[in-house]
Amino acid sequence: MSMFDPSLDPLKPAGSPPTGEPVFLVVGKLRRPHGTRGEILMEVWTDFPERIKAGDIVYIGSSYEPIAIRSLRWNNKMMLLTFPDHSTPEEVGILRNQWVYVRADDRPELEEGEYYHHQLIGLRVREETGEVIGVVTDILETGSNDVLVVKLEGSPDILLPMIDSVVLNIDIDSGDILVHLLPGLLP
Predict the structure, then answer these.
(1) Residue pLDDT, tens place only, 55-84
(2) Percent of the chain predicted with pLDDT > 90
(3) Closest CA to 151 of 110, 122, 117, 113
């Protein structure tokens, strides 16, 4: 999940330089008020919604305004949130269509071999021979496996499935992803 104008792309949160860890990560987008008691629907964008709890501080909008969650509950696949000082639909309505962030340093630890998308953006992609073939610019989420979008020098982007037979090693510290190119993956 890199750097941009958050109003354009929620998967690439602002708040950090073009390289390195982002300061904030998107966890959702506030949609519309619900009911008459100041609740607002939040579209969930995190893989860890269970970590969002009443009392947590989240950051709203491009100015990252800190605000505590007063209460939350599920409504189908969306969360219903309330915030202090927002007890009517009109008061909470001013937050409509704002991104909701958490601090990146508060994200959960992943198991060995798992990575956050923002950690892979910008890594060099190398063939088994050591030759650099490009740089990861995006990650597509598909039903079966994620797909790396790799920018090649002077050629169209290529798509590399994140499967064991293609992605051999990911080394965040060195900035490299070692791949085995199956026939047909290069243009």
Answers:
(1) 999 999 999 999 999 999 999 999 999 999
(2) 56
(3) 122
- The backbone torsions φ and ψ at residue 49, rounded to the nearest 5 degrees and listed phi first, read -65, -25
The pLDDT tens digits for 77-122 are 999 999 999 999 999 999 999 999 998 777 667 777 777 777 888 9
Pairing label, strands 124-127, 176-179:
parallel
The residue written with tokens 């009392």 in the block is: 55
Identify whether the C-beta of residue 22 lies closer than 8 Å to the C-beta of residue 118.
yes
Terminal Cα-to-Cα distance of the chain (whole angstroms):
27
- Strands 124-127 vs 132-141: parallel, antiparallel or unpaired: antiparallel
Q: Could you tell me which of 4, 3, 37, 33 has the C-alpha nearest to residue 21? A: 3
Pick the CATH number of 24-105 from 3.30.70.1450, 2.40.50.140, 1.25.40.10, 2.40.30.60: 2.40.30.60
As a residue count, the chain comes to: 187
- Determine the 3-state secondary structure of 49 from DSSP: helix
Global model pTM greater than 0.90: no
* CATH class of this structure's domain 117-179: mainly beta
Q: Closest Cα to residue 167, out of 187, 183, 181, 155? A: 181
User: In the chain, what are the domain boundaries?
Assistant: 24-105, 117-179
